[in-house]
């Protein structure tokens, strides 16, 4: 019997954002709408997460930073680094996204894979936010799994076009979490942190060369790290159409990237939680299509209902 495809989604993901940031965030509503419309998923596939308890957030983020977020006392400079003005709605959104990723972890332990429509907030550090990221959902979820002894060795596969600098910093001295980031070498953040493995890609890289880097790396990591849980950040800002990506990856190249990750992780029989990460093409239909491909592939490759 096939398993069940779990997808974390809550309408709050899209709504509390400032007016100027709502266009790229429309994808959080359009992805589940498209998947439902085409019949790839049914309403019962959607998990509606609650707000993550503070004690779980505090496994990763400092008490001072959490207090600032909850109390709306971030300085103007701190808000500029994040890129959003603070608001109670935005703070609640982050707490819900983090819980969505934790819910995906629990679901993936049962069915092999689960996906968060949002998440991938890899620029958030333990004590501060950056790059539109307030909390680091993968870091919080990874520390939760370790604390609950649901995992002993975790691999984070970050294929967003931007380096996962916050994630690298948080786990710098934690041997239980191996961080792998393959990103644009000349893209944000311009001061990179040191992941366990960083691959900086040249501007304009094409499908074949991108896939070569990935195929030369991922099986080796699965064999050498020997993770018992994988996080996959499947940003679609690698597309040639992306406003900020600087790479030359086609829609099919992005799809084949996801296929290779899923097939490799599944081959090693390791559960996988997925978050969408970035995507900033001018045409929202391109962003939605690329993200929906990730969900379609997960369902097909894992044989889920």
TrEMBL record:
Transmembrane parts of this sequence: none
Residue ranges of domain Histone deacetylase in the record: 24-283
Keywords: Hydrolase
UniProt xrefs under CDD domains: HDAC_classIV
InterPro entries found in the cross-reference section: HDAC_classIV, HDACs, His_deacetylse_dom, His_deacetylse_dom_sf, Ureohydrolase_dom_sf
Similarity annotation: Belongs to the histone deacetylase family.
Record's protein name: Histone deacetylase
Lineage, uppermost ranks: Bacteria, Pseudomonadati, Bacteroidota, Chitinophagia, Chitinophagales
């Amino acid at each position: 019997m096939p398993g069940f495809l779990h997808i974390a989604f809550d309408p709050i993901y899209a709504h509390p954002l400032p007016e100027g940031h709502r266009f790229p965030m429309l994808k959080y509503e359009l992805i589940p709408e498209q998947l439902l419309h085409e019949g790839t998923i049914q309403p019962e596939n959607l998990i509606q997460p609650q707000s993550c308890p503070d004690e779980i957030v505090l496994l990763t983020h400092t008490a001072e930073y959490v207090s600032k977020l909850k109390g709306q006392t971030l300085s103007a400079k701190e808000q500029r680094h994040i890129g959003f003005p603070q608001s109670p709605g935005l703070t609640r959104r982050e707490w819900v996204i983090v819980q969505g990723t934790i819910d995906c972890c629990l679901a993936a332990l049962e069915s092999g894979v689960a996906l968060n429509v949002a998440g991938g907030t890899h620029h958030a550090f333990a004590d501060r936010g950056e790059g539109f990221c307030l909390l680091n959902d993968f870091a919080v979820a990874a520390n939760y799994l370790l604390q609950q002894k649901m995992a002993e060795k975790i691999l984070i596969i970050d294929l967003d076009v931007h380096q996962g600098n916050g994630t690298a910093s948080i786990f710098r001295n934690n041997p239980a979490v191996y961080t792998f980031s393959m990103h644009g070498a000349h893209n944000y953040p311009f001061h990179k942190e040191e992941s366990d493995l960083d691959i900086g890609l040249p501007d304009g890289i094409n499908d074949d060369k991108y896939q070569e880097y990935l195929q030369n790396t991922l099986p080796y990591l699965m064999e050498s790290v020997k993770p018992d849980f994988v996080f996959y950040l499947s940003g679609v800002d690698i597309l040639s159409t992306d406003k900020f990506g600087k790479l030359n990856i086609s829609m099919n190249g992005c799809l084949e990237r996801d296929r290779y990750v899923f097939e490799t992780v599944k081959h090693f029989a390791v559960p996988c939680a997925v978050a969408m990460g970035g995507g900033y093409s001018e045409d929202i239909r391109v962003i939605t299509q690329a993200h929906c491909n990730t969900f379609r592939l997960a369902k097909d490759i894992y044989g889920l209902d």
